[in-house]
């Protein structure tokens, strides 16, 4: 487990920073009290629950995906059934999205209510070994409860943005207390940016975990590395339109579905493909006890 790069600890630390920003903004809005903080936190909790409970429906609708039977997608079914059996988890629902943009995602609040979706584009460019690597990665997102993690991060980012907007339009605290207006303005501008960057950092950290755990599940890290190389080329050639609906679910996808360059890379939901591939190749070179049954904690 030495190659895990302390991803769980990183995620916890990032959440801690995000909560610190929430508390700081709540204190500023409340003028040194917590009277507004609890209101916005309650709103955030409701948003988290709604997003978490309906995560599968939201993503599937955004990608216009349709359910497939074993007769319609025998290769997908065979691979997912095999990997689910190895992980001792229930069989998820399978979907295909009618787009030539190559990508895949898994969603659902738990393994019993999970869905895995591949686009027509990814099914066209991957061989069976590479597809197996991709599906192993997606299943590990479900088994690692990454949907809950991303839902909470998204809700906290929303709370921070709402608090900042409230502070901007209505002011924070008692003006008679002589608060620093420049500090308040800086917080209004910087807090939502910080929240977004932290949310993206959490998403990237979970991608590294899913790469590593998926490679252990399949026993073939080089298969996923090969798939990622094809995806990097494919998503550049056929990016998805950057609509609000797709932006809300882009963090679920195996590869960044949008065309990004320059500053856009800073706000990408996924780590660089080159780094992901490098880590997978290091796993293969290290021979970390791969093979079926490598994932035993479920």
From TrEMBL:
The keyword RNA-binding does not apply. It comes from the Bacteria. GO terms for molecular function: metalloendopeptidase activity; zinc ion binding. Its EC number is 3.4.24.-. It is found in: Cell membrane. Zn(2+) binds at residues 137, 141, 207. GO terms for biological process: proteolysis. The active site is at 138. The chain crosses the membrane at residues 12-30, 36-53, 147-170, 182-202. Its cofactor is Zn(2+). Keywords: Cell membrane, Hydrolase, Membrane, Metal-binding, Metalloprotease, Protease, Transmembrane, Transmembrane helix, Zinc. GO terms for cellular component: plasma membrane. The keyword Ribonucleoprotein does not apply. Binds 1 zinc ion per subunit. Belongs to the peptidase M48B family. This is Protease HtpX homolog. It comes from Xylanimonas oleitrophica. The lineage of its organism: Bacteria, Bacillati, Actinomycetota, Actinomycetes, Micrococcales.
